[in-house]
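Hey, can you fold this one?
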Amino acid sequence: MWNRFISLFCHMNEKQNSKAVIGAILVGISAMLWGFDGIVLTPGLYNLPVPFVVFVLHLTPFVLMNFFLYKRYSHFGLLNNTEKFSLLMVAFFGGSLGTMSIVKALFLVNFQQLSIVVLLQKLQPVFAISLAAIFLKEKISGNFIFWAVVALIAGYFLTFGMELPHFQTDKNTIYASLLALLAAFSFGSSTVFSKKILGKLDFVSATFFRYGLTSAIMFLVVLSLGFTTEFQNITSHNLLLIFIIALTTGSGAIFLYYYGLKTVKAAVATVMELLFPLSAIIFDYLFNNHILSPLQWVSAAIMVFAIINLNAQPNIIKNLFKKKR
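Sure. Predicted structure:
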């Protein structure tokens, strides 16, 4: 398997395919930006309600996008009803439910075990491939089941070590872990639904509509929960973080990721995406002085290795990322 990944990079270098190299670098940069966001930026908004945080983090870049991308609204009419529904599900799972889950998980651990929450969220291939088997009728092998089980077991030891979780003392850790898994499920679902609109929308339009629909969904959530008055509780520090996230680790990172994904193979993108959890561990140490225990390092390494093997499922991954003809 490793030989396959190495040969992919060597093949790029032999052909001197600068676009593919740049694409791989952009995917890696976006992954590191997400790691920085999860460890350093988003936890700084802990004083605000989670639904409100998710709302403003999508509304701010969407408003800014409208100054440059307002002509993209006409592209929405190119989609049929099934594709429009799929785009709505991408916004619901990937934008709303997934983001709320991971943000709440980060807030619950109170700046402790942030890198563990980020690592657990990377279990999304388990759910993406499982959902692809259900909804896209893709076949899964015994090899996938084996590595999925290995990844989940490693995730348990990463979180709780050799101890059984105690609900009273580990309550927030348990909740945060479950929310991180819900985020993984949501982002995996978003990947499956996004396949329905690949080929119809370019990465700019897809990002534009995703942020717009997510903003609309989260506005209804915020309105129903009575959080519209939270605007007055935004501090100057909050405002700075919101704009930094909006321009860099939020929409900026997604633009880089989708643009890079156009020019690289899915297997290469998978390897570069591992910079997300790895950078999260590094940032958690640099900014919070947290470091994983030896058992957690081993568990994290096993989980990452299992995730690589999950992404190496040839038929499913190929079909998840290929464009419709």
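The chain has 14 helices and no strands. Let me know if you want another pass with a different chain boundary.
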